[in-house]
Specification:
Layout: E1 5-12, E2 15-22, E3 25-33, E4 43-52, E5 56-60, E6 67-70, E7 82-89, E8 98-100, E9 104-106, E10 110-114, E11 122-124, H1 131-144, E12 149-153, H2 162-183, E13 190-193, H3 197-204, E14 211-215, H4 218-230, E15 240-243, H5 249-252, H6 255-261, E16 266-268, E17 274-279, E18 284-289, H7 299-321, E19 325-330, H8 337-354, E20 359-364, E21 369-374, H9 381-385
Parallel strand pairs: 1-14, 11-12, 14-15, 18-19
Antiparallel strand pairs: 1-2, 2-3, 4-5, 4-7, 4-13, 5-6, 7-8, 9-10, 10-12, 16-17, 17-18, 19-21, 20-21
């Protein structure tokens, strides 16, 4: 039986919280509030403040910190001029948001991006493994993609009709052209295309969502329901429920408690072992321990089972906590090469299953240390929800 996936969206005066659950287990949490909201995906007309020759241009996009763009991506830029940009990464620590000049928009089946001076490319989701379908989609994409643009065909496009694919490409293309037209008359800093968090989250998980619960005013719910009823694609397929009861959605479905657990240093494994997660500015360190688990067979089996359970838990926690950068995992030492291979394969499979963000496994040392690198697109859960003490520096 396939797992049941539910999306919970909570609107309030302070912002929006969106949670994705699978069989009651929290997989991802997105928080868009006045204090902590992601800027990733927003298309903004900013104003260049200063330029460091050969390095960066710093841009006022209306946030607390000036964002920056590589000079390789910005041509003939001058201080004081307006510039149309899109946010690629949120501001973190002392760094402002990272920008690009090429606009990229996505739907549940496509990602259309300006290619600028680069060669236009066509990419097909690696999860579309059927060779004939891969070739069919690539041929259609080449036929319909506008000149000067690159296209990524996502997993949900598998089996799609050519006319539907063409229409989706044309819609995204028209939106980008409209944004660029508006930018010519915009007074910076101004956001021209805000990406709504809930819409982005729903679109990202369209193929797997069974139910959506929305806690909001009747006005907000009615507007979402109207959009859904006018859709002919996957967005129109799943049930939509309005929720106004007390306690709130996040209390009723045990989501708040799971969010609290996601900030805990220790995560317990099914057999009695546990992992500890330490997040620093330099890297994330994860340690695997057998804990109370003594096993029913031999020591080798006990260690392997603990490590395999840890691999699954680590993949889940990386997604849930949105941990990124360099991640060091100290697995329990394995002497058998076959066990090491099984562990790395399991970790790769779990990472691919739970996360849409690219995570690379660098390898395993003789001491059982595994290094991962994971792209950062938004602040981690702890950065959003926890504040550092001004005296000791701890969260």
């Amino acid at each position: 039986m396939n797992p049941k996936r539910q999306l919970f969206i909570e609107y309030s005066d302070t912002g929006i919280r969106t949670a994705l659950l699978e069989d009651g287990k929290l997989l991802e949490i997105f928080i868009d509030s006045n204090e902590a909201s992601s800027w990733v995906g927003k298309v903004i007309v900013g104003r260049i403040k200063t330029i460091l020759p050969g390095l960066f241009a710093f841009v006022d996009i209306g946030s607390n910190k000036n964002a920056f763009i590589n000079l390789e991506e910005g041509h003939n830029l001058k201080a004081g001029q307006p510039i149309l940009v899109q946010v690629c990464k949120d501001a973190t620590g002392s760094k402002g948001a990272y920008l690009q000049q090429e606009i990229s928009l996505k739907s549940h089946i496509l990602v259309l991006s300006e290619s600028g001076n680069k060669i236009s490319e066509i990419g097909i989701s690696r999860k579309i493994t059927d060779e004939a379908e891969n070739k069919r989609l690539r041929k259609l994409a080449k036929k319909f993609t506008p000149k000067g643009f690159s296209l990524i065909v996502r997993t949900d496009a598998k089996g799609i009709e050519p006319t539907t694919l063409e229409q989706e490409i044309n819609t995204l293309h028209a939106t980008i052209l409209e944004i660029k037209k508006k930018a010519e008359y915009a007074l910076p800093p101004v956001t021209l295309f805000p990406i709504q968090l809930t819409a982005n989250t729903i679109t990202k998980n369209l193929s797997s969502i069974d139910e959506v619960y929305i806690e909001s005013s009747l006005e907000i719910f009615s507007s979402i329901k109207e959009i859904k009823s006018n859709e002919s694609g996957a967005f129109s397929q799943f049930p939509l429920f309005h929720y106004t009861n007390t306690p709130s959605l996040f209390v009723q479905f045990n989501i708040n408690k799971q969010i609290t657990n996601a900030l805990s240093k220790i995560i317990y494994l099914p057999s009695g072992g546990f992992i500890t997660i330490e997040q620093t500015e330099a890297c994330v360190v994860i340690d695997v321990n057998t804990g109370s688990f003594i096993g029913k067979k031999d020591y080798r089996t006990t260690i392997l089972q603990t490590n395999l359970e840890a691999a699954s838990a680590i993949a889940t926690q990386l997604t849930l906590r949105n941990l990124s950068g360099i991640i060091i995992v100290d697995f329990i030492d394995l002497e058998n090469q076959e066990d090491k291979t099984m562990l790395l394969n399991t970790l790769a499979q779990e990472l691919n299953k739970t996360s849409s963000i690219k995570t690379d496994i660098v390898g395993m040392t003789e001491l059982g240390l595994v290094q991962l690198t994971r792209k950062k697109t938004r602040p981690s859960l702890s950065e959003v929800l926890q504040k550092k003490c001004p005296h000791c520096g701890r969260s």
